[in-house]
Design goal:
Blueprint lengths: L5 H7 L4 H25 L4 H17 L13 H19 L16 H7 L7 H26 L8 H4 L6
Length: 168
């Protein structure tokens, strides 16, 4: 069996409410940080980037974006980045910034940790997004591999491979 790709995860989300929830639970933690870095590199303050990241994902959830995503139209990260740009334009035009608290569900963001990592990212917002995207993919793969070793699904010691990488 091949590992689940972003597209197979997204396409499977159309099968049921549980599959949709599982896809969102897998996608949101993976993609909030690249979006946050993109916004910070576009010049937004920590607070403004947090608000815009939360608002963007809330907007995506409210619009039930997964069923509308089409793999024939390109990469998911391109879709996500284009959606973010459109959201930012609409947000600016309508001055509809989502405020913290109230009746909205908060997506937990560790902006202090992200700010610690921000200096290591490229100055260009697109490159910062791509770099963090790649780092998140590698971290997720290594965490999954470590879990397989711990559950005994893989043979041999996990430490020689994993000691070189410590997911954040």
């Amino acid at each position: 069996m091949f590992p689940t790709t972003r597209w197979t995860l997204i396409l499977s989300s159309r099968e049921s409410e549980e599959a949709r929830r599982a896809a969102l639970e897998a996608l949101l933690p993976l993609y909030w940080k690249p979006v946050y870095f993109y916004l910070r590199r576009k010049g937004r303050s920590v607070e403004a980037a947090e608000d815009a990241t939360q608002g963007f994902f809330l907007h995506c959830l409210e619009r039930d974006f997964l069923p509308r995503v089409d793999p024939a139209r390109g990469r998911f990260r391109s879709y996500l980045l284009t959606s973010l740009e459109n959201y930012l334009v609409n947000r600016h035009e309508h001055e509809a910034a989502v405020k913290r608290g109230g009746r909205v569900q908060i997506i937990p963001l560790d902006s202090l940790l992200a700010e610690r990592d921000l200096p290591a990212t490229p100055e260009d917002p697109g490159r910062a997004f791509d770099r963090e995207w790649g780092m998140a993919v590698v971290e997720r793969a290594l965490a999954r591999l470590k879990g397989e070793y711990e559950r005994g699904r893989r043979k041999g010691p996990a430490d020689p491979f994993l000691r070189f990488w410590q997911p954040s």
